[in-house]
Design brief:
Blueprint (H helix, E strand, L loop, with lengths): L7 E3 L8 H10 L3 E8 L7 E6 L2 E2 L5 E3 L3 E7 L6 E3 L8 H10 L3 E7 L8 H4 E7 L7 E3 L3 E8 L6 H40 L2 H8 L2 H4 L6 H10 L2
Length: about 230
Amino acid sequence: MNAINPERVAMPNLVDLTRIQASAKLESFGLKVGHISYEPNIAINVVLVQRINGEEIIAGDSVIKGSSIDLVLGNGLSDEQAAIPNLIGLSLEEAKTKALDRNLNIGASVHDQTIIKPEDEIQAVIFKQKPEPLPGITLPLGSELMYGLHLILPRLSLSFFRRFIVRYAMKFIRNILICFIFFYCVDLSAQRLQSLLENPVLKEYRFRNPARLKSTSATPLTLHFLRIFLP
């Protein structure tokens, strides 16, 4: 399936299920919980109505996979309140899950200058929220929490560190080998030159006699070094 023909699934029946049961069932169908609201009803935290884009949807209707389904739950005919969860440092999805656990909703957001593209929200974390999670402060069930997002460095997985270490370790080993080979060749050349300089026959019969210097088979560069180092 693609964006032109997105995959669709049949809408499951969530009515009379608890919020937790409805959430699990939606997930099994490739759907997710959207906005949660409450109405006076004796059945507390039980699904009364299921909606999509503000319209009620019945079981069996075709919906796009990944859609958010809004739920209307019963509040148990009480004024039950929920403690405000601390969302600071959580991703948006983690915050939604934590808010739903308290029967609250994630509401409007404020993005700082680090959020440029829509994809940045996936890697962003919440750096402020309103109301703040102060002791003794509660909200009615179904209330919304406002939040602010800030983009940080993406979370690095263990596999990333493994690839990073292997990649740069190989480069380090390669450079060490190159240096070793280079200095080995330099040292070997120096030893050969020293051996040539210390050859008594060469000193006595070829390089101390200027007349013979012209007849030597050594290269000009070698002769230059010999003139410098010979006593």
